[in-house]
Design a protein that fits this description.
- GO terms for molecular function: pyridoxal phosphate binding; transaminase activity.
- One of its GO terms (biological process) is polysaccharide biosynthetic process.
- InterPro entries: DegT/StrS_aminotransferase, PyrdxlP-dep_Trfase, PyrdxlP-dep_Trfase_major, PyrdxlP-dep_Trfase_small.
- This protein folds into 2 domains: about 230 residues, Type I PLP-dependent aspartate aminotransferase-like (Major domain) (Aspartate Aminotransferase, domain 2); about 120 residues, Aspartate Aminotransferase, domain 1.
- The chain contains 13 helices and 12 strands.
- An 8-stranded mixed β-sheet has the order 1-9-8-5-4-2-3-11, with helices on both faces. A two-stranded antiparallel sheet has the order 6-7. Strands 10-12 form a two-stranded antiparallel ribbon.
- The longest helix has 19 residues.
- The protein is globular, with a radius of gyration of 20 Å.
- The termini are far apart.
- It binds pyridoxal-5'-phosphate.
- The site of pyridoxal-5'-phosphate (PLP) has 15 residues, from helix 3 and helix 4.
Length: about 350
């Protein structure tokens, strides 16, 4: 209802791109996260790519990230002309391992992109420490972590800048593509506002640098403003479903995601040795749809053939085993017990 009203109001308004709805959402989202600036853009991938450019990262630079993520994370590195360096994950959090990051730093390293995979916080305190020591920029990939936190402090506020996606399936998602960058850096925020708009200053029609057309539209912003106040409640539901899975699946021959109180369970990914057979059985015999995130690892995608690839034993072990169970409250509420029972049946010898 509220969303319908927001859509109708936008359609009848004189603004479709970068208008008052975008400004209002930017202010609300920045306040929600406790950061100074939010810059709405056209997608999460653009949020990452524009930020790397805004940070001055480009040809000759290396950017350290994980290979166990969505392609968009590392596509952004290619877009600014830099080279991805894939380092291993921590096998418990499944996020980038700070020790592997430290081992992968060279004289060409310019930035680190930790991904809060599946809504689980990466070890930001340790990563910021390492980055500070080596003078590196940190860009948090928060595409799966809206509302996640570490000791009550929101993700998105740890790095020098953070990128969010509002793709429809995200914990906070619109009805199309959009994204945002948040930062406490005044200069970077101003640069990003210009980069998203042909390299122009908002009120001028002169391009002072090479820029992009990457703006959040009013429709997405209006819808996201309606949904933002419900984000925490949705995340609480996801945590409750995760707890239920955790209880019901305890003792089975599979690995569960870490039980982190700050996680927001964008996905609930179990690891099981015969993942494809389990997924097939759940679908064909019980009608339960699951998803695979992420296999193959990015270092096996042709697009990243020129990336630097460190030893990835934990990522390579986990990637063929991960299976995401339904966790979206609209799909999983009331069904987690049945799904867990079906898994139990499917994997018992
Ligand atoms: C971890 C991660 N990074 C980046 C992106 C890219 O976001 P978008 O699809 O909005 O470009 C996604 C989205 O799917 C993602 O999950």
């Amino acid at each position: 209802m509220e969303v319908d009203r927001a859509i109708a109001n936008t359609v009848s308004s004189p603004h479709y791109i970068l208008g008052p709805a975008v400004e209002s959402f930017e202010a609300d989202f920045a306040a929600y996260l406790g950061v100074k600036h939010c810059v709405g853009v056209a997608s999460g991938t653009d949020a990452l790519a524009l930020t790397l450019r805004g940070m001055g990262i480009g040809a000759g630079d290396e950017v350290i990230t994980t290979a166990l993520t969505f392609s968009g994370t590392a596509q952004a590195i290619l877009h600014c002309g830099a080279r991805p360096r894939f380092v291993d994950i921590d096998p418990i959090s499944r996020c980038i391992d700070p020790a592997a990051v430290e081992a992968g730093i060279t004289s060409r390293t310019a930035a680190i992109i930790p991904v809060h995979l599946f809504g689980h916080p990466a070890n930001m305190l340790r990563l910021m420490d390492i980055a500070g020591h080596h003078g590196l920029a940190v860009l948090e990939d928060c595409a799966q972590a809206h509302g996640a936190s570490i000791d009550g402090r929101m993700l998105g506020g740890f790095g020098h800048a953070s990128a969010f996606s509002f793709y429809p399936t995200k914990n906070l998602g619109g009805i199309g593509d959009s994204g945002a960058i948040v930062t406490n850096d005044d200069l970077l925020a101003a640069r990003l506002r210009s980069l998203r708009h042909y390299g122009m200053k908002d009120s001028q029609r002169i391009s002072s640098t090479m820029g992009f057309n990457s703006r959040m539209d009013e429709l997405q912003a209006a819808i996201l403003s309606v949904l933002l106040p419900h984000l925490d409640a949705g995340n609480i539901e996801r945590r409750a479903l995760a707890d239920e899975y955790r209880r019901e699946l305890a003792g089975l021959d599979l690995l569960l995601p870490p039980d982190d109180p700050g996680a927001v369970y964008h996905q609930f990914a179990i690891a099981y040795k015969d993942r494809d057979r389990l997924a097939h059985l759940l679908q064909s015999e019980m009608g339960i749809g699951t998803s695979v995130h992420y296999h193959p690892l990015l270092n096996h995608h042709p697009a990243f053939k020129d990336a630097i690839v460190d030893q990835l034993p934990h990522s390579e072990w986990l990637s063929p085993r991960l299976l995401s169970l339904p966790i979206q409250p609209e799909v999983a509420a009331g069904n987690a017990g049945i799904i867990a029972e079906s898994i139990d049946k499917a994997i018992k010898p």
